[in-house]
Write a structure and sequence with these properties.
Elements (H helix, E strand, L loop, with lengths): L20 E10 L3 E13 L4 E10 L2 E10 L7 E18 L2 E21 L2 E16 L9 E17 L4 E11 L1
Antiparallel strand pairs: 1-2, 2-3, 3-4, 4-5, 5-6, 6-7, 7-8, 8-9
């Protein structure tokens, strides 16, 4: 199809999509030969709308973990901001006295957070709720701690004076957060 002529005084714009799906592999070896491998998959321009989606997971000698986050930096192209996060960790814990294991248990932690904020030029203020569920399973021969759940109110102030590049911010970002 031949291109239509551009009317006088008008501009013709071509939009090139950029690759915004960023894979970040992860590997770590700690003292005691504990090994962890995993990765994060980050989409920094979800649906071409500047939304951020992060999916990550890891496996280690001690357990597994995953995290999922969604950040909308401009709900419906407004100054309102939405952040949703969830993650789960399942890991074996040991307490040593010298070379002897004196306590051992399996810890399962589930974290969930939701925050709503508003951007005033370079300053963003946000409030939210965060919940943490902590459960334990005893390993045979050891005592099991009590499970617990907590709900917290969160507050955050963020100063952003940066330009967004392919997958990082170039410039200054300051953040102050409080959980209660």
């Amino acid at each position: 199809v031949p291109p239509r002529p551009t009317p006088p005084g008008a501009y013709r714009v071509w939009v090139d999509e950029r690759w915004t799906l960023i894979p970040l592999p992860y590997a770590q070896v700690e003292s005691g030969d504990e090994r962890t491998v995993g990765g994060i998959l980050m989409e920094s321009n979800l649906f071409g709308l500047g939304k951020l989606l992060i999916l990550g997971g890891s496996v280690s000698d001690r357990g597994t973990a995953y995290t999922l986050a969604y950040i909308d930096r401009g709900i419906a192209m407004s100054n309102w901001r939405l952040t949703m996060r969830t993650g789960q960790t399942r890991q074996a814990l040991e307490h040593h006295t010298g070379d002897m294991v004196t306590d051992e248990l399996l810890e399962m932690r589930q974290d969930t957070a939701l925050a709503l904020g508003y951007r005033f030029r370079r300053l963003t203020a946000a409030v939210g709720l965060a919940r943490q569920d902590l459960r334990f399973e005893a390993v045979e021969g050891f005592a099991r701690p009590e499970s617990s759940a907590s709900l917290r109110v969160t507050g955050e102030l963020r100063f952003e004076d940066s330009d967004y590049r392919l997958f990082y911010d170039d410039g200054a970002n300051l953040r102050w957060a409080r959980k209660r």
